[in-house]
Design brief:
By secondary structure, the protein is mainly beta. It contains four helices and 18 strands. Helix content is 10%, strand content 41%. A hairpin with a 5-residue loop joins strand 10 and strand 11.
Length: 236
């Protein structure tokens, strides 16, 4: 396993294993996620999320580069932000020429809600779904689906992600609408009035969105053991 769950050097729940490094670390504080909130004046944890990108064992970094894939770790704090669960801001994965890209997520620790949204035209939503996830669920985020990852539990949520190294993360559309089509929290789901139309919010079982390579290996090990299964994540 590339990471362990425990108290890290910076006070987080992520502790990197021996010989494992990361190239990027981005921190999201409450002030930075206000454009995505139901109530932008909401109180909540000062630190919302961290993302570690380019995580790899030193001797395997060249393998990831040849595959044009990247392994990352998302960490989201517990609590509430107003009436919402803390979340990594909603976004869409795109490639060059705005090509929609997929991703694979795996829960390493905690309880997650994964909201998936397929946008239509003229500020309408074509599909809206929610999945409830916990370790060791591993799911596919299909290309063209914006998504929001939320911490629905009482402990820090840690999720691994694999996507193309050419992925560009597009936050603009959801920020323009002040978040996703539904605001989600302990009190349930509320339609976001900044969209013109909302389809019913569907609950999906994790098995329906299962990613390839399910088995005893974690996501990092699964990619190293059978890289051809994950080449679809870099559709160039």
């Amino acid at each position: 396993m590339a990471v362990n769950i425990g108290r890290g050097d910076n006070g987080t729940a992520v502790r990197f294993g021996s010989g494992v490094g990361h190239e990027v670390e981005r921190v999201w504080h409450l002030e930075q996620v206000r454009p995505f909130l139901e109530n932008p004046d909401s109180g909540g944890p000062g630190l919302i999320a961290r993302f570690y990108g380019g995580v790899a064992r030193i001797q395997e970094r060249r393998v990831w580069e040849r595959l044009h894939l990247e392994y990352g770790i998302v960490e989201i704090m517990p609590g509430v932000v107003g009436r919402e669960w803390p979340a990594f801001p909603g976004h869409l994965h795109r490639g060059p020429q705005r090509t929609p890209f997929p991703a694979v997520l795996e829960v390493l620790h905690g309880e997650a809600g994964l909201y998936l949204q397929k946008d239509g035209s003229f500020d309408r939503i074509h599909e809206a779904s929610i999945l409830w996830l916990r370790r060791p669920d591993r799911v596919l985020v299909p290309p063209g689906y914006a998504h929001v990852l939320m911490n629905c539990g009482t402990e820090v949520l840690v999720v691994a992600e694999v996507h193309s190294s050419a992925t560009l993360v597009d936050f603009d559309e959801m920020a323009r609408h002040r978040g996703a089509g539904y605001y989600l929290g302990p009190q349930g789901a509320r339609p976001n009035p900044h969209y013109r139309a909302h389809p019913p919010l569907r609950e999906l079982r994790a098995a329906l969105m299962a990613a390839p390579g399910a088995g005893p290996q974690d996501l990092y090990q699964a990619v190293m053991a059978a890289p051809d299964r994950y080449r679809f994540l870099h559709p160039l």
